[in-house]
Amino acid sequence: MTSAINGSAQPATAASTTADKTPPLAVDRMIETVDLGIAFGKGRQRKQVVDGVSISIARGESYGLIGESGCGKSTLLRALTGQNPHYAGAILYQNREQHPVRDKAFYRQIQMVFQDPYASLHPRKMVYHTLLEPLVIHGMDRRETRISDVLDAIGLGDAFRYRYPHQLSGGQRQRVALARALIIEPQVLLLDEPTSALDVSVQAEILNLLKTLRRERNLTYLMVTHNLAVVAHLCDRVAIMHQGKLLEEMTADEIRRGSATEPYTQQFLAASNH
Ligand SMILES: Nc1ncnc2c1ncn2[C@@H]1O[C@H](COP(=O)(O)OP(=O)(O)OP(=O)(O)O)[C@@H](O)[C@H]1O
């Protein structure tokens, strides 16, 4: 929560801090962090939670972030979404450094899907109003058609527009949360453990849906997860974090084969596979 943050890292000033650190331009770079640092607390209480993390995610790529609990994954994701403006280093979208405080145009392109579909939907809002709201905020036209289309795309169908969250299963709620993110046609989805609150059988359905949506819409995913099966199913590349640092990047294939270079990663993969 931004209100609880008393991070002491200096906010990055747009286009000022990284001129000498930014890697050479790649044509299709969608998301990048350059030497990202996030700390909480002051003085002896200060804790560096994200420490010099540089990642680069291409357009259309699905990138996973894994690591033990407390290693800084969600903190990194929150900085990317603009929920924590107190960071050092730089965050770039489509080669442009972002101001730590994001504007509406940013959220038109980048949407977030959270872990808990029970907490993320307003209990007194019909699906229709949940989906209408982002269209109004972003001044988009053809609202009725867009609502029907997105309900079809996420596999619920138009009749679901009249349901309230308590009339939906966990998997259906997560589909609505996905529909809410997709309805404004973003390019990037930031996914924070999007299946971990769901039953195992439903997890597979949502993962398959995410896979299909990415292919159909050429979406870019950045996904935080504990779950190696999720990574193997959905991610092209994975970063392993440990105590705030990026330890190693691997392809999904390398993860499946367990061919890590770093001893910590080898242990982490072995433990996660039990
Ligand atoms: N607002 C905050 N103020 C102080 N400390 C924080 C704050 N947010 C996170 N932390 C601390 O930062 C560390 C990393 O937390 P983070 O939520 O990023 O971990 P994570 O890797 O996502 O863990 P998990 O997998 O359990 O969700 C933790 O020690 C946490 O207590």
From TrEMBL:
Residues 1-11 have a biased composition (Polar residues). The keyword ATP-binding applies. SMART domains: AAA. GO terms for molecular function: ATP binding; ATP hydrolysis activity. Keywords: ATP-binding, Nucleotide-binding, Transport. Signal peptide: none annotated. Pfam families: ABC_tran. Coiled coil: none annotated. One of its GO terms (biological process) is transmembrane transport. Belongs to the ABC transporter superfamily. This is ATP-binding cassette domain-containing protein.
